[in-house]
Amino acid sequence: MNIWLVTIGEPIINPENKLRLHRTGILAKYISEQTNHNVIFWTSTFSHFTKRHLYNKDTRVEISNQLKIVAIHGVKYKRNISIARIINHRQIATKFRTFIKKEAKPDIIVVSFPTLELCEAAIYFGKSNKIPVLLDYRDMWPEVFVDVFPKGFRFIMNKIFLPLFLRTEKVFIIATGIIGITDEFLNAGLNRAKRVKTDFDSVFPLAYLKNQFSENEFVLAEKFWTDMGIGINDKIVRICFFGTLGYQFDFETVLEAAEELSKESISVQIIICGNGDKFTTLKKKAANLKNVILPGYMNAAQIGVLLKVSDIGLCPYYPNPAFLKSIPGKAIEYMSAGLPLLSTLEKGVLGRIITHNDIGYHYDCGNTNSLINAIKQIVNEAAILKIKHKVITKIFSEEFDAQVVYKQYTDHLEKVVILFQ
Q: Rounded distance, CA 307 to CA 310, Å?
């Protein structure tokens, strides 16, 4: 079976890429290594995370006999919310439409939503060539643009973004099937498609592949953190975060809480890893906070070590519907190391998992006192945090381990191809 996976904005399999693979990269790796199927991973030459090109032109790379990457070149962008990024997405979609006409036709296509332009290109190609196309629904777009505005303005913004909503609705209607990262995402996708669930639809959560680094890389990463004064035997409660430092996160409350905790000499340290539109501002605000570290974007090994020396994983999301209906990838990555979670998503899917299994703590987004109280509770319960590790690791192994999730995902792709014939 020949499978196309279409995604941009993820790290790709590349010798120079030291970042951990995300959903499509892990799926491509699993299928090509664990089955007899062939995979083409259609993606971008541009790294969304490091903001640089991995290749300087359209490039085709043969990773193995069963896995090939086609990286399409587009303009650079410095900010995640920018005109340059919109141009990049349109350029890649335009080239994708051209390139796929010259390629041997696949048995199935899986395209990540968003981006809208690539979804349109993949779905219309599939429809005209009688190829099943599944939408991997992982982000509630374009709702994310509307949700950043105060409630009083959202009616107007919905009108402004109506053309995008209509285009989005159309791709969901035309798609052969929908893959949701949660039941809530699948149901939202089915509502967009105006239909009930069929055998072409399913749910596969975001999953995490552990230990995406060599032993030597891990040793170097240990030295990196040791040189920063961070060690595994520190008698301090360490809260970690890693991801894009963008507008979906409320870091302002985190820094305010850190400042107050510092005044009270509470033994806690917050490490916020990553880069993004908020990085420079946050770095300035945290300059005088000794209990906050912003080291920039970390590679897979550095994150692996940080997970090992941390006590809590931080999920400081603004609790909009997109995140409340999701189980964020970073929460799953924290769970892979057995870390309890500190989250603002109590009323969502992740919140239910935390509460039901007693594997973390909640606080109110934007409420500094709420976060301070949660961190004080964590510090007071530091001795029992390790006890939660066994439960958390079990949940991860059964529900979010990549080897489990992506075997099921692959089985579904095989079923869809048979049903579509």
A: 5
